[in-house]
């Protein structure tokens, strides 16, 4: 298997914070490392507790889109510290849950934190979501929570997810989905950043895949579209929380890229140039 370079500065920072005993950081990002979902964004409190609840709710929204049920075999690709697997483990029984991540440091954390319960079985696997180390038709569900923009190739991931799903199985994911006409501008900005050999605070992220691209890809691969849900509005309080949390120990210059990138995503999201979407697909029962 080709070795993929792991370039995720935000995870380096989080892991350093854990090692230094930063309890607030551990509380905020020790389980989920993704945006929050607020059913009523006007009631967001901007506290760590409120953010954690919202991050947990985002996970629920995604696995609800995948119609997860007791007794299933599920792959969580790009599983972070195992928060989605932890949530499924707490809410379902007789599951076989597999968390896959390219970064073994995150898997070590997941392994320590998530203990199987309710007749569930949990496996942690190091690997690339675009080259899944599993046989055909091994899962009822595949999830990819806020990570597909890091994968080397969305097409390859979709083909792999299709291959490892059983007929009738579902893939559900969340992603930052730009308006089609805005894609060339993002691509230009990404090219500029690449030419400066700067992958930024959030690492290599491709946010140039519009909804039309997903629709074309799903049809090419053979998936039937199940859900296309715009939840941008519900995720917006995330930005105030991240900016406030980032500044909790005061400002310093080293945080500038993190602030600049978070502010940019906040702005393009508030202007609806980039939407936060939950997308779900079904592999047909008969092919
Ligand atoms: C924003 S985090 C989301 C983590 C987790 N899904 C969550 O919601 O807490 C993105 C994750 O994708 C993982 N990742 C990036 N590229 C990957 C790849 N090619 N294969 C598998 N995982 C990958 C990162 O290591 C990281 O855990």
TrEMBL record:
Classification via InterPro entries: Erg6_SMT_methyltransf, Methyltransf_11, SAM-dependent_MTases_sf
Keywords, alphabetical: Methyltransferase, Transferase
Family matches, as Gene3D superfamilies: Vaccinia Virus protein VP39
SUPFAM superfamilies attached to this UniProt entry: S-adenosyl-L-methionine-dependent methyltransferases
Pfam families: Methyltransf_11
Limits of the Methyltransferase type domain: 75-172
GO function terms (MF aspect): methyltransferase activity
GO biological process: methylation
Protein name according to UniProt: Methyltransferase domain-containing protein
The organism of origin for this protein: Spirulina subsalsa FACHB-351
């Amino acid at each position: 298997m080709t070795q993929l370079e792991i370039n995720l500065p935000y995870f380096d920072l989080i892991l350093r914070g854990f090692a230094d005993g930063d309890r607030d950081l551990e509380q905020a990002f020790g389980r989920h490392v993704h945006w929050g979902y607020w059913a009523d964004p006007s009631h967001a409190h901007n506290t760590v507790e409120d953010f954690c609840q919202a991050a947990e709710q985002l996970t629920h929204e995604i696995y609800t889109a995948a119609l997860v049920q007791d007794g299933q075999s599920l792959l969580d690709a790009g599983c972070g510290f195992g928060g989605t697997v932890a949530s499924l483990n707490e809410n379902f029984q007789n599951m076989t849950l597999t968390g896959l991540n390219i970064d073994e440091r995150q898997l070590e954390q997941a392994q320590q934190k998530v203990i199987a319960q309710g007749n569930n079985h949990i496996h942690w696997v190091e690997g690339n979501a675009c080259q899944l180390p599993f046989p055909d038709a091994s899962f009822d569900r595949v999830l990819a929570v806020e990570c597909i923009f890091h994968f080397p190739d969305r097409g390859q991931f979709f083909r792999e997810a299709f291959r490892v799903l059983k007929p009738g199985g579902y893939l559900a994911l969340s992603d930052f989905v730009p308006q089609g006409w805005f894609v060339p501008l993002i691509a230009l900005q990404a090219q500029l950043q690449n030419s400066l050999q700067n992958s930024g605070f959030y690492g290599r992220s491709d946010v140039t895949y519009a909804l039309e691209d997903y629709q074309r890809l799903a049809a090419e691969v053979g998936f039937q579209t199940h859900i296309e849900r715009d939840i941008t509005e519900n995720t917006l309080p995330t930005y105030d929380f991240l900016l406030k949390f980032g500044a909790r120990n005061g400002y310093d210059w080293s945080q500038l890229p993190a602030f600049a990138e978070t502010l940019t995503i906040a702005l393009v999201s508030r202007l609806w140039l980039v939407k936060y979407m939950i997308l779900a697909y079904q592999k047909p029962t008969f092919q």
